[in-house]
Amino acid sequence: MMLPTVLLCATLVAMLWFLKGDLLGYRRTKRLPDTASRQKTYRLWIAKAVIAFVLPAAAGLALLERLDALIMIPSEFDDLRMLLPRFEGDSRAFVLGMMGGGALAGLAIGAFLATRRNGRMLKPIGNVGSLLPRNRAEIANAAAMAITAGIAEELAFRLFLPLLLALISGSAIVAFCLSLALFGAMHRYQGWAGVIATMVVGALLTAIYVMTASLWLAMLVHALIDLNGLVIRPIVAGAWRVSSSSASRS
User: Which of 7, 44, 119, 127 has a CA-to-CA distance to 81 between 20 and 30 Å?
Assistant: First the structure.
């Protein structure tokens, strides 16, 4: 029990470090007028996400000798899995395909709904307007950030953190509830509307992971959701037509 506790403390410290930097980075982004500085902030977020989420999870799973959890859902989650439908065996591939197709369809529908009839982009949920890219170069960086978030945050909040909490508490239900609360708290910079929306999405991603036993599907859905908000919506709103050079001149 000592090792999971030590790893949990180290993981929480890493997340606190990321949260502090995330808040400062978001405030800095709101004040940055030039696109070069905004692109640098996107890249800095990606690097910090890898340091705060991916590296602790990878190292921790290795120390626990549980790297197999990347492809097989841990048995510690069985008490939660018993409460939800399971899609295994022959039905698993079909369900994975349906969910993947549904995620892609949702991405297309989200792009269609991203604008009003008069062409103005609908206001996103939460205080995230300053994060939205404004030109082609920023869109490329935002796309990389969305994909990184899908991988790093699912690895941390859907697998590693719940596993540590389940090992310590003996309950997957408690573990996932605490992880979900922390997942919402990490998005506090978006305001309370953003926190609530994040927790709803986190609950959906948890259900996808637990029911299908596929962390990679949860990563895919998470990345598609973020791509919709950070890439598709700005493209529909016209950001793709703005080059970085023209943005710098303006």
Answer: 7
* Selection from 73, 105, 77 nearest residue 212 by Cα: 73
Alpha-helical runs (H) found in the chain: 2-31, 35-49, 55-63, 78-81, 90-113, 136-154, 161-169, 172-185, 191-212, 215-227, 233-236, 244-249
Distance CA 222, CA 219 (A): 5
d(CA 12, CA 121): 36
DSSP 121: B
Query: For residue 100, what are its two tokens?
Result: 């993947």
Instruction: Provide the token pair at 138.
Output: 């920023």
Which amino acid type is present at position 192? W
> Which pLDDT tens digit goes with each residue over 147-202?
999 999 999 999 999 999 999 999 999 999 999 999 998 887 777 887 898 999 99
pLDDT of 203 strictly over 90 = yes
Report how far apart, in Å, the C-alpha atoms of 212 and of each of 81, 228, 247 are: 10, 23, 44
Is 190 within 8 Å of 73 (Cβ atoms)? no
**pLDDT per position as a tens digit, 60-86:** 999 999 999 999 999 999 999 999 888
DSSP character string of 161-200: HHHHHHHHHS-HHHHHHHHHHHHHHTTGGGHHHHHHHHHH
| Contact between 26 and 45 (Cβ < 8 Å) | no
